[in-house]
Amino acid sequence: MLKAIINGEHHEFTEGVSILNACRSIGIEVPHLCDDERLKACGACRMCLVHIKGMTYEIVSCMNEIADGMEIDTHTRTIEDARRMNLKMLARKYPAEAFAKFPDKPFHRLARDYGLEEVDFATSCNGSQIDDSHPLIRVDMSRCIDCYACVRICDEVQGQFVWQVVDRGESTRIVPDSFGRFGDSSCVSCGACSDVCPTGALEDRTLLEGAEPVNWTKTVCPYCGTGCEMNVGVRNGEMVQIKPTMEAPVSHGHLCVKGRYAFDFVSARDRVTEPMIRKNDEWVTVAWDEAIAFAADEFKRIRRQYGKEAAAVLGSARATNEENYLAQKFARVVLETNNVDCCARVCHTPSAAALKLMLGTGAATNSFNDIENARTIMICGANPTENHPILGERIKQAAYRNGTKLIVVDPRKIELVKYAAIHLQMRPGTNVPLFNALAYTIIEEGLCDGEFLKLRVDGFEEFAKLLRDYSPEEVAPICGVNAEEIRPAARLYATNKPSMCVHGLGMTEHIQGTESVMCLINLALITGNLGLPGTGVNPLRGQNNVQGSAQMGCDPGILTGSISVDEGREHFENVWQTEVPKGKGLNVLQMMDAAKAGKLKAIWVIGYDVFLSNANASATERAFSEMELVIISDMFMNETARKFGNVFFPVASSFEKDGTFMNGERRVQLLRRVIESNGNSRTDWEIICGLADAMGKGEQFRFDSTKEIWDEIRTVWPSSAGITYERINNAGLQWPCPDETLSGTEILHSTSFAKRKRARLRGIKYRPTSEKVSEEFPLLLITGRNLYQFNAGTMTRRSASSKIRPTDTLDISHADARALSVANGEIVRLRSNYGEAYLPVRISPTVNRGELFATFHDSEIFLNRLTSPHRDRYVQAPEYKVTAVTIEKLPEINVV
After folding, report:
1. What is the structure's pLDDT at 158?
2. Residues of 714-732 as b/e, b for ≥16 C-beta within 10 angstroms?
3. How far apart are CA 468 and CA 331, in angstroms?
4. Are 611 and 765 in contact, with CB atoms under 8 Å apart?
5. Which residues contact 178 (CB under 8 A, 6 or more apart)?
């Protein structure tokens, strides 16, 4: 410890602490404008001056570390005079009207503290420096004080490098990289620059159009599975601003455009806030008691008429752990069926199945913090900078600043390709042969981790034998990747350790989705890239609680904690005091099949627009048309409800309830109610309990709070027993955490695998999809998300962020656009063997010739009308990523 005297008092500090932070730690607030804990110190504002005994001049405290024996004064007359003079110099060009209108800006507070008045500021704002071109952030450079915080945070945190410093001396100015309008820049709208700006030169439009928040509540982002934490500002019962939580273990004081700006949906005009029943093909508003009673009576009727297996429940990746736990409990206890599933089925169930089958636990092996520990990161079928932006910027910064080597495996040129050592741009659907070729090379060139294989892996000889047919030279024509590219990638992954793999839906949404993930696990096992920091196989979960909804038992074959129904039956029956059904149960795709066959007659869909989201919408349409009872729990009249619903339960948003979410690294995080529920909407857990009571099973659903539900979850799921609400009040915990004395598990499989010491390699043969190009359908379509929209668009299309990317687009190569004579923005008919959609063309260098990419967020375009019926053979996840299509020009060209 170091000893120092600050303002006459003795204190002790650890080495490496700046004088500014040392003062802050003992309660002495040294003024500053350019300092931020997310940034490297730069001393630009000259406000944090201090005097060190023995020195003839003052120094900036942010850039100097405290040393043993220092004697420091922070507020001498000389220092205070210097600060006041600095502030007056900054004020000479700063508009007085802004100083008066926004009193809480850091610069304005300091100016008042040091006695500045409106007369010390410039008389008026320079209107020519206002830039209104960006829909979320307003620029007014007449309020810029050249602290460079915006430049630094864009560079050091987001890694986007939008803000540029040009010219020198008095002519120095900060401009966007468009060197023109900010709206034309490469900005990704994360809001970090406006967050750190001390003057309002960069300002959130939500504040300009509203008012400053008066209350702040910490909660968790409702979008992707990263688990970013946020502080939500409220005024007069309405959300007006969202800012990042500095101490968040995942997001580290950062948010993406959706987390920061896409919250308008909470107060959208078309939000449904009253229960409804469809009568004579018209929706009629009713009281809650009537809606609950009607649903209960219909469930009972269908059970009497068709039997227990004629009803089903779908949980939601949008709902909390507690609500998903009750959803599957409702299916099993009230409806007495294992017909329960969730939207994880159509995206990440292949990952969970592969990881559980081979390693024993169906979840990410490592933590997101291992991004910074890895020397090599292989990104497979994922586009993190758009779909998991906070993780994307961490990967980008690891490559750009730390020298981490990136291998990108993707048919498209995603943004991270710019930072990658190797890009394996394979044909869609050829994951298995490509990864087999990587494994072949590692074995052939003697790059396996022999010690790891000896101690922890079985089946090597059999595995190596199967790979004899998968040399890079044999595989290259299949994958469209040269052998000379495959071999260096294999060497890099195997030797530049620790090597980490992250993957997304480009891996899983194929007929060999589960097997593709098995191939990744094979690579990790033969190279020893498991159980250590910076290693592992890590699916990037697509929705905020997709990991949690499945882990809670919203799956026909598993109970809470991912234990099989048969294995967990006795324990759950003891806790629930009732029998657990013995029937096999249906997943969501099997439910659709059963409905078409006339066997499934009722379904309760919670927070999941099945009709819009499922592949091959015509098949889903036929299934729902055969059902007699469709209950929808949602915030909006989604496409499933609009066309097929009989009962509508209006639900609270994540900002209007308590509970927990589980992110992609197994972290259970506390969700807090920010505002009261809109209108007469209720939380999902309250609705489930109410309907259970109406059906005579209320005793098993007597809960007064989400904490009570979570405590029951801890009872049935031993790996979560140590995770209490009290322990995750400040930060989440990663399971397994079976005891309250433990701090959770950051890395799985450190010394053994779940339930066993050794893992077995799985030889996977390539089984190509039957979805192939032809003369009629000469192009391959890949589907996915974009940065500014989210899944079915239920939330983002009702938010300000939607202005940046308001609709879906069809990305096409320059070569194909020329061959087909289609122009940028031209609306075309996209047709497959299963349906058609109309959407605008976007000519893009990111896709290969013969391949297309389209997003699926716009219900008016309804892209899933043309995706295929093919399914993964292990878990039946749809094959969204490969559909043979053709582009047809319309009689008249329409440009958007």
Report:
1. 95
2. bebbebbbbbbbebbeebb
3. 48
4. no
5. 184, 185, 186
CB atoms within 10 A of CB 327: 29
> CA-CA distance, 694 to 293, in Å (whole number)?
6
User: Please, what sign has the CA dihedral across residues 707, 712, 715, 720?
Assistant: negative
Quick one: three-class SS letters along 572-587?
HHHHHCCCCCCCCCCC
**Three-state secondary structure of 103-161:** CCCHHHHHHHHCCCCHHHCECCCCHHHEECCCCCEEEEHHHCCCCCHHHHHHHHHHCCC
Tokens of 132: 């209104």
Tokens linked to 349: 């169930």
Element (H, E) at 518: helix 513-527
To which residue do tokens 């307003």 refer? Answer: 138
Residue 525 token pair: 């096992």
At 888, phi and psi to the nearest 5?
-120, 130
For the beta sheet containing 659-662, the strands, ordered from the edge strand earlier in sequence to the opposite edge, are 659-662, 667-671, 733-734
Q: What is the pLDDT of residue 893?
A: 53
pLDDT of residue 895: 56
| Tokens representing residue 529 in the block | 């890239």
* Nearest-angstrom CA–CA distance, 392 and 785: 14
The DSSP code sequence of 712-758 is: HHHHH-GGGTT--TTTTSSS-EESP--STTS---SSS-SSSBTTBS-
pTM tops 0.90, yes or no: yes
Rg (the chain; Cα; Å)? 29
Residue 840 in contact with residue 896, Cβ under 8 Å?
Answer: yes
Rounded Cα distance between 291 and 558, Å, is 30
* Bridge partners for 4 per DSSP: 11
Angle between helix axes 321-329 and 706-716 (nearest 10 degrees) is 70
Paired strand residues for 53: none
CB-based contact 230:237 (threshold 8 Å): no
Residue 498: asked if its preceding bond is cis (omega within 30°), the reply is: yes
**Residues paired with 232 in a beta bridge:** 217, 242
Please name the residue that has the structure tokens 């690579």: 523
pLDDT at 109: 93
Q: How would you classify residue 698: left for phi > 0, otherwise alpha for psi between -120 and 50, otherwise beta?
A: alpha
Amino acid (one-letter) located at 156: E
Q: Show Cβ contacts of residue 842 under 8 Å, excluding neighbours closer than 6 positions.
A: 809, 810, 811, 812, 824, 825
pLDDT of residue 896: 55
| Contact of 440 with 471, CB cutoff 8 Å | yes
**CA 62 to chain CA mean position, Å:** 34
Per DSSP (E only), the strands in 448-498 are: 457-458
- For the record, the structure tokens of 888 come out as 């047809």
- CB contact set of 127 (below 8 Å; sequence gap of 6+): none
Give, in degrees to the nearest 5, the angle at Cα 60 between 57 and 65.
105
Burial class (CB in 10 A: 0-12, 13-18, 19+), 487: buried
Q: Which residue reads 């093909």 in tokens?
A: 281
pLDDT, mean of each 10-residue run, the chain (896 residues): 94 94 95 93 92 93 94 95 92 88 90 89 78 95 93 95 89 92 96 95 88 93 97 95 95 96 96 97 97 98 98 97 98 98 94 96 97 98 97 97 97 98 98 98 98 98 97 98 98 98 96 98 98 98 94 98 96 97 96 98 97 97 98 98 98 98 98 97 98 97 98 98 97 96 97 92 97 97 96 93 94 98 97 97 97 96 97 95 97 63
Residue 753 carries which side chain, given as an amino acid letter? F
Do residues 611 and 640 lie in contact, with contact meaning Cβ atoms separated by under 8 Å?
A: yes
| Whole-angstrom distance, CA of residue 49 vs CA of residue 80 | 9
